[in-house]
Amino acid sequence: MSEKVKVTNLVKTFGDNEVLKGINLTVQNNEVVVIIGPSGSGKSTLLRNLNKLEEPTSGSIVIDNVDIARNDVDINSVRENIGMVFQHFNLFKNLTVGENIMLAPIELKKETKEQAEAQAKKLLATVGLEEKFGATVQSLSGGQQQRVAIARALAMNPDIMLFDEPTSALDPEMVGDVLEVMKKLAKQGMTMVVVTHEMGFAKEVADRVVFVDDGQILEEGTPEQIFEHPKNERLQDFLNKILNV
Amino acid sequence: MKRKVLSAFGLLAVFVAILFCLGLPGSKAQAKTYQIGTDVTYPPFEFANKKNKYVGIDIDIIKAIAKEEGFKVNVKPVGFNAAVQSVQSGQLDGIIAGMTITPERKDKFDFGTPYYKTGAVMAVKKGSNITSFKQLKGKKVALKTGTAAADYANSLKKKYGFKTVTFDDSDNMYQDVTTGNSVACFDDQPVLQYGIKHGLKLQIASKPANQGWYGFGVKKGTHKQLIKKFNAGLKIIRENGTYDKIVGKYLGTTANPQVKGKTFTIGTDVTFPPFEFANKNNKYVGIDMDLIRAIANEQGFKVKIKALGFNAAVQAVESGQADGVIAGMSITNARKAQFDFSKPYFNSGVVMAVAKNSKIHKLSELRGKKVAVKTGTSGADYANSLKKKYGFKVVTFDDSNNMYQDVTTGNSIACFEDHPVMQYAIKQGTKLKIVTKPALNAPYGFAVKKGHNQALLKAFNTGLEDLKASGTYDTIKAKYLGSDEIKTAAKTSGNSAEDRTFIGLIKQNQGALLSGLKETLWLTVVSIFFATIFGVLVGLMGVVPNKFSRGTSTTLIYLFRGMPLLVLALFIYTGIPSLTGQKIPAFVAGVITLTFNEGAYIAAFVKGGIEAVDPGQMEAARSLGLPFGKSMRKIILPQGIRIMVPSFINQFIITLKDTSILSIIGLLELTQTGKIIIARNLEGFKVWTIVAAIYLIIITVLTWLSNWVQRRTKV
Ligand SMILES: Nc1ncnc2c1ncn2[C@@H]1O[C@H](COP(=O)(O)OP(=O)(O)OP(=O)(O)O)[C@@H](O)[C@H]1O
Ligand SMILES: [Mg+2]
C-alpha cells in the first residue's frame, strides 16, 4: 500500500469563517475512505479542496507526490485524474447522455470520437444504462442521472473518485442502484473518498471511516471501530442521532 | 365606498375649476399676451445673447410691433420644427422664426406682410477652393431641415450630383462643414453673413438664389386680429425708422444704395381701372399705383405720382419732366425705340365676356349674333379681325359701361375687353362672366427714357421680383381682380394641388420613405451586428474570474447604459472630430453610438444569462479537467444563450427604434425623412402616422421572425 493522497494541516476559511481547521488525512492507493459528520461540519469543503474546486487557504494536499495546494500546479491535468460525483449530478443539460460522457475525452484529446463513443457505451453498460446513449438528460430519472454522472467521471480513467453525498438527492428506491455501481467500483480497486450518510454502505465498503465535526477530524478508524466502539462523545451523539431516525 | 369615490371626483372637479378661474382672469383683464414660437438659434434672427436673453431681428421686430399695437408677446424659443407644429396644434399663437413664405406653407399658415427678404447661398469652409456647384459632384452637402435653403439645395442635387446630410440645427450643420464631413452647406444669406461676421470659419461661395421673404405666421384661418395688428405695427415701424434701426443693428443697411432716399416723378394715366384711378378719397390707387409704391418702399426710394393722362405721361418722360411712366403701357417694338422697359409686370390680353346666365362659351357660337365693343380698344380691334371668320355683327360704344349693359340686357350676346379691365368690372358687380382665355397677349411694362434713369429701372426690376417672391404682388393683383386668377395660377403651379390624403402622401413620398426605411434597416442590422460582438465580449469579461476584467465590464456597462443615446450620438459625431481632428461619417458615428449603447444592454443580459446558468454546470465541467474557456464555450454559453434569446430579440427591436434618435446627426433614416417631408408639406399628423405605421409593420415582422427563431432554439 502506498499513499495516494496526503492532506497536511489543511485550513480553509470563507472570510472570517474558518471551515476547515487543520485537517490531516491520508488516503492509500485502492483505499475507500468514507467521511461522515453533521451538516455544516465541512465535509463537502474538504472534498472540494481535494480537486481544488475550493482554493485551500493553507496547508498542503499532496496527490501522487504533487502538492496541488501550490499555485504553480496545472490544476486541469490534476483534475483529469480525479473524478467527482456531485449530490445534484450536474449533468450537462445541453448535451445528450453520450455527449456528456464523451465531452472531456474528446475535448482534452485523450481519445478520438470513435474511441470515446465505444468507451462511453462500455461505461454506460457498467452502470446499467447502455440503452440511454442518445437520450436527453431531462428524460432520465435522478438515479439514472447519477449513474450517468459516475460514468462521465470515469470516462477520463481517473485514479481517484470523489463522491459528495451521491445518493442524498435521490428517491429511496433509486439509492440501491447507485450504491451498487459504487460497490462495483470499490471492488475493482478504485481509490475512493465518499461523503455519505449511508451507514450501511460505509460499514460494507469502507476501509476506513473518518468523522468530521466543526472542521476537524475527531476520530477515524475501521468501520467496526467507528460504528461499534466510538470513542469520541460527539461521534457517539452523531451516531445515536442518525441511527435512531 | 362608492360615495367616497364620487366625492373624490367632486373635489377634483372643484380643484380643476379653481385652477381655471385662477388662470383665466389674467388673460382677460390685461392686454392680451400672445405665445409666439421661434427657433432656438438662428442668428441674426433669434439667438440668446451673452446675458442669455433672446434677441435678434425677429424678436426685436415682434416686440416693437407689440409695443406699437398694445399687445404682449411671450416669445418661446422652442425650435423651428417644434414651433411650426405647435402653431398648427394651437399650443402657440404665432411663429416668427425666419420662416420663408412658400405656397406649401400658405396652405397651413396665414402670413402677415412679409418683413424680411432673404435668399439662399452656398457656403464652404474658409480657404476652400469650391466656388461653383459643379465642384460639388459626388461630395456631401450639409442642410438644415425645413429651410428654404435646403429646398434650394435639394433642387440642385440631381443636376450637380451631390449628396445631402440634414441637421436639426444650424450649428451642427456648420460644424459638419468646418470639420470637413461635408464640403458645403446652404443657408439663408443674412444668417451666414452674420455668422461669418461673428467668427464662423466659412465663406460664401454663391450668389443669393431662390430669393424669398420671411413672414410672421399663424395657423390658417385663426388669429386674424393678430395678423392685422402685426401688419399695422410693421407698417408703423417701417415708416418711423424702427425697422431699419433693428435690421441695421444686426446687419447694417439693406436698401438699394443707388436709389435710396431719392424721389422720382412717375407719370400715369388719369383713369384706367384697375391700373390707375382715383378712389373715393381722391387718392390714386390701382395695380400700377400699388405696385410702384410697394417697390419704392422696398427699394428705399420715394415716388411722386402725376396723373397726366397716358399720352402726356409718355411725353413727360421723353422730355425728362418725369422719370418714369407706369400706365398700363404695353411693351411694343415701336415704343422700345424711345423707352427702356422694365420686365413685364402684367400680362394683359383680350377676353370675351357674356351674360352670367349665358351658355355661350366659344367664338363659333357667335354666328349671326351681335357683339359689343368699345371704340379704340384692342378688344374692338380683336373683334373686328374675327367678325368675318365667325360671322357676327359688331356694335360699337364710347363707354365701357354702356357696352357691358348692352350685353346684360341681351341686345348683344357678348363683348370683348381687356382681361384685367373685365375682371375688375366683374369684381365691381358687372353681371358678366369671362368665357375665353386672353388673346392678343400684351405685356405691360414700366418705362424710362431710353438710356436714362437706369438705376430706377434696375430698382424696379429687383423690387418687382421681390414682390413676386414675397406674395405682395399677388396680393395687390387680387385686391383689384379678385382671387380667381390667383387660385388657378396656384393650382397650375402644382404643389398645392398635391394629394393630401394618406394614399396620396405615401405615393408622393414613396421614394423618400423607402430610402429612409432602407437606411433605418441598414443601420439596425450593422449596429446590432457590432453591438452583439461588443456586448458579448463585455458580458463575458464580466464573468471570467479576473477582477480587472470584471471591473472593466461593469464600468463599460455603467457608462454606456447610463448615457442618453442622444448625448452619446452628439458626443461621438461632433466631439470625437474635435478631439482627434479626424472626421467621422455620420453613418459610422451612428453605428458606433448604437454599438456602445445597445452593446452595453447586450453585455448586461449576456452577463445575467451566464450567471443564470446553474453554477454546478461549471463545476462539473472544471472537475473533469476542462479549462475555463472550453467549459464556457461548450457548456455555459449554449445554455446561457437560450436564456438570452428573448432579450436579444427585444434588443433588436429597441435598436430599430433607437435608430430614430440618430436623425439628430443628420442621418437620413426613416424619422429624419419624416421630418423633412413635414418641413415641406406641414402634414405633421398624417406623415407621422405613416412613419409610425412603417415602424410598427417592421417591428411586427421582426417579432414574428423572432418568435419563430425562439421556437426553434427551445429545447
Ligand atoms: N462558498 C462558500 N462561501 C462561504 N461559506 C461557505 C461556502 N461553502 C461552504 N461554506 C460554509 O462552510 C461550512 C461548511 O460547509 P460544507 O458544505 O462543507 O458542510 P457539509 O459538511 O458538507 O454539510 P452538509 O452535510 O450539509 O452538506 C458551512 O458553514 C457553510 O456555510
Ligand atoms: Mg455537503
Automatic annotation (TrEMBL), chain A:
Keywords: ATP-binding, Nucleotide-binding, Transport. One of its GO terms (molecular function) is ATP binding. InterPro entries: AAA+_ATPase (IPR003593), ABC_ATPase_HisP-typ (IPR030679), ABC_transporter-like_ATP-bd (IPR003439), ABC_transporter-like_CS (IPR017871), MetN_ABC_transporter-like (IPR050086), P-loop_NTPase (IPR027417). Residues 5-239 form the ABC transporter domain. PROSITE patterns: ABC_TRANSPORTER_1 (PS00211), ABC_TRANSPORTER_2 (PS50893). The keyword Transport applies. This is Phosphonate-transporting ATPase. It comes from Lentilactobacillus kefiri DSM 20587 = JCM 5818.
TrEMBL record, chain B:
This is Polar amino acid ABC transporter inner membrane subunit. SUPFAM superfamilies: MetI-like, Periplasmic binding protein-like II. It comes from the Bacteria. PANTHER family: GLUTAMINE-BINDING PERIPLASMIC PROTEIN, MEMBRANE-BOUND LYTIC MUREIN TRANSGLYCOSYLASE F. One of its GO terms (cellular component) is ATP-binding cassette (ABC) transporter complex. It is a multi-pass membrane protein. The keyword Signal applies. The chain crosses the membrane at residues 521-544, 556-576, 687-709. PROSITE patterns: ABC_TM1 (PS50928). The lineage of its organism: Bacteria, Bacillati, Bacillota, Bacilli, Lactobacillales. CDD domains: PBP2_GlnP, TM_PBP2.
